[in-house]
Write a structure and sequence with these properties.
Length: about 300
């Protein structure tokens, strides 16, 4: 694995507010890495530090295994909350200005306009764009010069449902090209839908971290038992809607594929002549913790 970003024991204070507390995590090449947390949990502050916009109080971070430099900065594209473009200039003209600033030839502009599906509107003035198109132009601007990493801060804030779906799909498409993505969001479903990995923040502190499928696993866990646990296990193994089976004392702990219910499982077993003596759904404690956490400040 190649580490793209490594953050170690980062701290940031604004007066009495400890915005980022001893934060450490690694982003590996190819990750779509979500930083998930409610408003005020320190996401933007963290991004601002790693983009060298503000200084940390203590701690360190490295890009591509090296001390941050002008060279490493060139490999990073960032789309922060409010894209700034000239309203009376066309999409192409705005991107030319950005290419000039980055010192990149204009021939990259065609490519990025295609990526964000704005090529047919390239000669329209920025002020005529919908909010979603403005956001896509901001992504195009960040893609100029082929960065290895793209950073998004709340990429779908303020967009309508169509715009939200378009931006999420675009992020997934960009990631499929091998670009590492770091995405800050207060939306659980946004991280679930777009990210491979996640770190969850609350008041500047890391609560959980790992693969989205592990950390944000919200499939039901079901306990079952019958008078013959071994026979039950054999029968459950034959059910193709089961993703995981564990034996715990006289119980089987089973995970089902999304959309499969305890009724389906029970029905399958009854058809095999097995009567359950026990069936309960275990509390989705992690999910509930998240939902509580993420709605706290709304
Ligand atoms: N420039 C600033 N001055 C003072 N406090 C700030 C400033 N920026 C952020 N904060 C505070 O730091 C905390 C983290 O903010 P922020 O990083 O913006 O969180 P998030 O992006 O997760 O919503 C919040 O309590 C916020 O009010
Ligand atoms: Mg923020």
């Amino acid at each position: 694995m190649e580490t793209v970003l490594s953050i170690k024991n980062l701290n940031k204070k604004y007066g009495k507010i400890h915005a980022v507390k001893n934060l450490s995590f690694n982003v590996e090449k190819g990750n779509v890495f979500g930083i998930l947390g409610p408003n005020g949990s320190g996401k933007t502050t963290t991004l601002s530090i790693i983009l060298d916009v503000i200084n940390a109080k203590s701690g360190s971070y490295s890009w591509f295994g090296q001390y941050p430099s002008k060279e490493s900065r060139k490999k990073i594209g960032a789309i922060l909350e409010h894209p700034i473009f000239y309203p009376y200039l066309t999409a192409v003209k705005n991107l030319e200005i950005i290419a000039d600033i980055k010192g990149i030839k204009y021939n990259d502009i065609e490519r990025v306009l295609h990526t964000v599906e704005l090529h047919d509107r390239r000669n329209s003035k920025f002020k005529t764009f919908s909010y979603g198109m403005k956001q896509r132009l901001a992504i195009a601007a960040a893609l100029i010069g082929k960065p290895e990493v793209l950073i998004f801060d709340e990429p779908t804030n303020g967009l309508d449902p169509k715009g939200i779906a378009e931006i999420r799909e675009l992020i997934i498409n960009i990631a499929a090209k091998g670009i590492t993505i770091i995405l800050a969001s207060h939306l659980l479903d946004e991280v679930q839908k777009t990210c491979s990995h996640v770190t969850v923040l609350k008041k500047g502190e890391k609560l959980f971290a790992g693969k989205v499928n592990d950390v944000l696993n919200i499939s039901d866990t079901i306990e079952i038992s019958s008078n013959n646990i071994d026979m039950l296990k054999l029968a459950v193994k034959e059910y193709d809607k089961v993703t995981d089976i564990k034996k715990e004392l006289d119980l089987l702990v089973v995970n089902l594929k999304e959309g499969t219910t305890t009724f389906d499982l029970n029905n399958f077993l009854v058809n095999k002549g097995i009567i359950l003596s026990h069936l309960t759904v275990r509390k989705k404690s992690l999910e509930q913790q998240f939902l509580g956490l993420l709605t706290e400040n709304e």
